[in-house]
Write a structure and sequence with these properties.
Blueprint lengths: L4 E6 L2 E6 L10 H16 L5 E6 L4 E3 L12 H20 L5 E5 L2 E3 L1 H8 L2 E5 L3 E3 L13 H9 L1 H10 L3 E2 H7 L4 E3 L4 H13 L3 H15 L5 H12 L3 H11 L10
Parallel strand pairs: 2-3, 3-5, 4-6, 5-7, 6-8, 7-10
Antiparallel strand pairs: 1-2, 8-9
Helix pairs in contact: 1-2, 3-4, 4-5, 8-9
Length: 259
C-alpha cells in the first residue's frame, strides 16, 4: 500500500515503520505524503487503538530531511513546505485522539527529532541520538522543532541544542524529559508495545480528553483549566464512565467500548 512505509497491526497498535534504510529513513515529500495518509487511517479505523512510529534498520529512526529537495526552494516555497508538513503530519500526530508513540531506534535528527517530538511521548533504544542540526545548513527547524523542543526540555537547553547543533544520547535525552524510557535496542519495540497495551485497557474517550488537556497545557493555550472542567463533565455522559464506575464498585475489571 505504501512505498516508503511498512505497516502492521499488532493487538490494536498500528506499527508504522519508515522504510528508507538506504537514506537513513530521511523524510522526503513521499514520506510526508504517506504519513499523512496513514494518519487518516489511524484517526478513522476503529480497529486501530494506538500507533507506534519507528524506523527501519538499527541505525536510524529518521536521520533528518532529504536535503536534495531543499536546493530549489525560495522563501515562499520553503514556508509552504513547512506549513504543509505541519498541517498534514506533525500537528495531526500531536492532536490525534488516539495515542501515538515514537520508538526511536537510532538517529533522530532534524525532521526526525521533530517527528518524534510531535508524538505523545517517546521511548528510545540505547543507541538513540537526538539533535536539531539545521543551523549547520543555514536553516532553523521548520516542523515545529523550536516550539516542541522548548516545551519538552526548557528554554535554555533548547536554545543551546539548536544553536550548537549538538547531538545528545538516549540517557541524556531521558534526563532532560525528551524521552520517557530507554530500553536495549532488541527490546525497544516490544517494551513500547507493552506500554500501549496497558493504555488500551483504559477508557478510550478519557484517553482522548487527556491528550487534548495536556496539549492545552504544553502549548500554554488560554482556558486550559476551563477546558479541563468541560471535558471532565463530558466524561459523565459516556458509557465508559458508567462502565468504569460500575466495575469499580463491583470489584471487577472494566471493559471499555470507547463510547
Amino acid at each position: 500500500m505504501y512505498s516508503t512505509l511498512l505497516t502492521e497491526l499488532k493487538n490494536g497498535t498500528l506499527v508504522v515503520t519508515i522504510n528508507r534504510p538506504d537514506k537513513l529513513n530521511a523524510l522526503n515529500k513521499d514520506v510526508i505524503a504517506e504519513l499523512g495518509t496513514v494518519l487518516d487511517e489511524i484517526y478513522n479505523n476503529p480497529e486501530i487503538k494506538s500507533a507506534l512510529l519507528t524506523g527501519s534498520g538499527e541505525k536510524a529512526f529518521v536521520a533528518g530531511a532529504d536535503i536534495t529537495e531543499f536546493i530549489s526552494l525560495d522563501a515562499a516555497s520553503g514556508a509552504a513546505l513547512a506549513a504543509k508538513g505541519q498541517a498534514n503530519v506533525f500537528n495531526k500526530i500531536e492532536n490525534s485522539p488516539k495515542p501515538i508513540v515514537a520508538a526511536v531506534n537510532g538517529f533522530a535528527l532534524g525532521g526526525g527529532c521533530e517527528l518524534a517530538m510531535s508524538c505523545h511521548f517517546r521511548t528510545a533504544g540505547e543507541n538513540a541520538k537526538f539533535g536539531q542540526p539545521e543551523v549547520n545548513l543555514g536553516l532553523i527547524p521548520g516542523y515545529g522543532g523550536t516550539q516542541r523542543m522548548t516545551q519538552l526540555v526548557g528554554k535554555g537547553k533548547a536554545m543551546e541544542l539548536m544553536m550548537t547543533a549538538d547531538m545528545i544520547g538516549a540517557e541524556e535525552a531521558k534526563g532532560l524529559g525528551l524521552v520517557n524510557h530507554v530500553f536495549p535496542l532488541a527490546e525497544l519495540l516490544q517494551k513500547t508495545l507493552d506500554i500501549l497495551q496497558k493504555i488500551h485497557t483504559k477508557a478510550p474517550v478519557a484517553i482522548s480528553k487527556i491528550i487534548a488537556c495536556v496539549n492545552d497545557a504544553a502549548q500554554s493555550r488560554p482556558g486550559g483549566f476551563e477546558n479541563e472542567i468541560m471535558r471532565f463533565g463530558e466524561c459523565f455522559i459516556t458509557e465508559d464512565m458508567k462502565e468504569g464506575t460500575t466495575a469499580f464498585l463491583e470489584k471487577r475489571k472494566a471493559i471499555f467500548k470507547g463510547k
